[in-house]
């Protein structure tokens, strides 16, 4: 009998054109990767864990830009066996490996990103600013848990920006929004803010410049993400306080130069 769990582990062959698009643009959107029924099977449990574990209770008016952008809860796989099934999906991890062009990927960590009704925009930023990793063989899958039209704040990419090297020293902030917005506009990058249907997912590189608009609807935008890394990737010397924190939190304080194979970093494919 086919179950949601077996659907999550069913192989998915990425088209060569999508591999090429990912390499060129630093991201790719794949339609219908997950059956809508599979998403519906896991969304209530993910949402329940986000509500239970969320520590942000200030009203929107009293938060800074980052805190208004979303509720963020990490490593839900440790809190729920059902969420673990989702995060450990071999289907999603296999796609990540194919796009990266590596034989195997590990988990860096997962995070739920819930943009509340009326929640603010997510500033332009790059993810790998936060990660003490030796190469750019990193990739994040962004899985919306409902249809995500423009008014809910779909993830938005600056195509090809992962090759620019610009803004990598910037933490996500009002400054990153202003400086990267000017850079993206002046550089003429195509900005892709197309909506997602439930079952669609995107994968993006750690250096791809991306953002998300505000949620102008009365419905929370519910998203689950998983960050993967090449299974052979090594730990780099942290260069900022965020990387120092990540080394301790997600990488088990493994030594610099060693493989990132801490207890929270299992091989997923």
Automatic annotation (TrEMBL):
A GO MF term: 2-oxoglutarate-dependent dioxygenase activity
Pfam families: PhyH
The keyword Transmembrane appears for this protein: no
InterPro entries in alphabetical order: Phytyl_CoA_dOase-like
UniProt-listed Gene3D superfamilies: q2cbj1_9rhob like domain
Assigned keywords, A-Z: Dioxygenase, Oxidoreductase
SUPFAM superfamilies documented for this protein: Clavaminate synthase-like
Name of the protein: Ectoine hydroxylase-related dioxygenase (Phytanoyl-CoA dioxygenase family)
């Amino acid at each position: 009998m086919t179950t949601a769990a077996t659907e999550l582990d069913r192989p998915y062959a990425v088209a060569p054109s999508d591999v090429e698009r990912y390499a060129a643009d630093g991201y790719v959107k794949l339609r219908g990767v997950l059956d809508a029924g599979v998403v519906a099977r896991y969304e209530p449990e993910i949402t329940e864990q986000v509500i239970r574990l969320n520590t942000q209770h200030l009203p929107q008016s009293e938060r800074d830009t980052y805190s208004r952008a979303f509720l963020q809860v990490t490593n839900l796989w440790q809190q729920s066996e059902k969420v673990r099934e989702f995060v450990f999906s071999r289907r999603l991890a296999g796609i990540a490996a194919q796009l990266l062009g590596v034989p195997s990927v590990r988990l860096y960590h997962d995070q739920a990103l819930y943009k509340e009704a009326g929640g603010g925009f997510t500033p332009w930023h790059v993810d790998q600013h936060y990660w003490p990793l030796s190469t750019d063989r990193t990739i994040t899958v962004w899985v919306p848990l409902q249809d995500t039209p423009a008014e809910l704040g779909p993830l938005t990419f600056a195509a090809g920006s992962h090759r620019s090297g610009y803004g990598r020293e910037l933490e996500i902030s009002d400054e990153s929004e202003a400086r990267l917005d000017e850079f993206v506009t002046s550089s003429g990058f195509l900005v892709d803010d197309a909506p997602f249907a439930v079952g669609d997912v995107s994968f993006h590189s750690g250096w791809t410049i991306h953002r998300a608009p505000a949620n102008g609807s009365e419905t929370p935008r519910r998203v689950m993400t998983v960050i993967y890394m090449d299974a052979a990737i090594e730990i780099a010397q942290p260069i900022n306080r965020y990387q120092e924190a990540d080394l301790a939190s997600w990488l088990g304080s493994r030594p610099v130069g060693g493989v990132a194979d801490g207890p929270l970093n299992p091989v997923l494919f």
